[in-house]
Amino acid sequence: MRFRLTPRETSFYDMFAASADNIVTGSKLLMELLGADSSARAEIAERMRAAEHAGDDATHAIFHQLNSSFITPFDREDIYNLASSLDDIMDFMEEAVDLVVLYQVEELPKGVEQQIEVLARAAELTAEAMPHLRTMDNLTEYWIEVNRLENQADQIHRKLLATLFNGKYDAIEVLKLKQIVDVLEEAADAFEHVANTVETIAVKES
Predict the structure, then answer these.
(1) Is residue 60 domain-resident?
(2) Are 13 and 24 in contact (CB under 8 A)?
(3) Rounded to an integer, what distance in angstroms lies between the CA atom of residue 85 and that of residue 16?
(4) What is the span of the domain harbouring residue 169?
(5) What span, in angstroms and rounded, lies between the C-alpha atoms of 81 and 74?
(6) Is the pTM for the entire model greater than 0.90?
(7) CATH number of the domain where residue 112 is located
(8) Is residue 24 within a helix (H) or strand (E), and if so which, with residue range?
């Protein structure tokens, strides 16, 4: 790590950690959705919406701190990209839950639970990694594992698409379910974007 003579604004670390912890909350709500009947889903969607708003607040706080800080712990562009990618994860998870409710999906196709399990694991790893931004220690395994999980998510997504197009579902149902599984795949991609940004930061700071 480079030796610095100038003080740096350290509140970013706490804000990134808070944002990642909120994503864990969102992933737990996704897991809860799997076991919920249609009557309970609207309430879960409301809690997810509140979590998404909390994520927006966390992101805006980071941007505000970024705009008001003369010295930052790492590159401004990387801070912006990390905050934006964390926000994207929450947006995609909230969108998936909202679509399940709006489309009145009775039963999600087999395989969606695997998508959500991957997201939940990625959320845990991301939350565990954020405090390590202070020292840049013990982060390599994090971004390697998140990249592996994203590859796993890709495989699950392809199998889900094959299931949707096997003739079991009518055309309208296919459109609804495909949009949901596509958004969950976008959430997995966003986790990888976070991991890649962390890797970029770590390389620059090494």
Answers:
(1) yes
(2) no
(3) 11
(4) 10-203
(5) 12
(6) yes
(7) 1.20.58.220
(8) helix 11-34
Residue 69 CB-half CA count within 13 A: 21
Residues 180-186: what's their mean pLDDT?
A: 98
Length of the chain: 206
Tell me the pLDDT tens digit for each residue of 113-154. Answer: 999 999 999 999 999 999 999 999 999 999 999 999 999 999
Q: Does the residue 4 lie in any domain?
A: no
CA 95 – CA 180 distance, rounded (Å): 8
DSSP letters spanning 75-141: -HHHHHHHHHHHHHHHHHHHHHHHHHHHTT-S-PPTTHHHHHHHHHHHHHHHHHHGGGGGTT-S-HH
Is the pLDDT at 2 greater than 50, yes or no? Answer: no
Q: Could you tell me if residue 28 is inside a domain?
A: yes
- N-term to C-term CA, the chain: 5
Residue that the structure tokens 């909120």 belong to: 22
Report angle CA 10, 120, 196 to the nearest 5 degrees.
Answer: 50
3-state secondary structure of 2: coil
36: left (phi over 0), alpha (psi -120 to 50) or beta: beta
The structural domain count of the chain equals 1
State how far the Cα of 65 lies from the Cα of 49, in Å rounded to an integer: 24
Q: Is residue 149 part of a domain?
A: yes
State the pLDDT at residue 69.
85
Dihedral angle sign, alpha carbons of residues 188, 162, 179, 96? negative
Instruction: Give the span between the Cα atoms of 63 and 80, in whole angstroms.
Output: 7
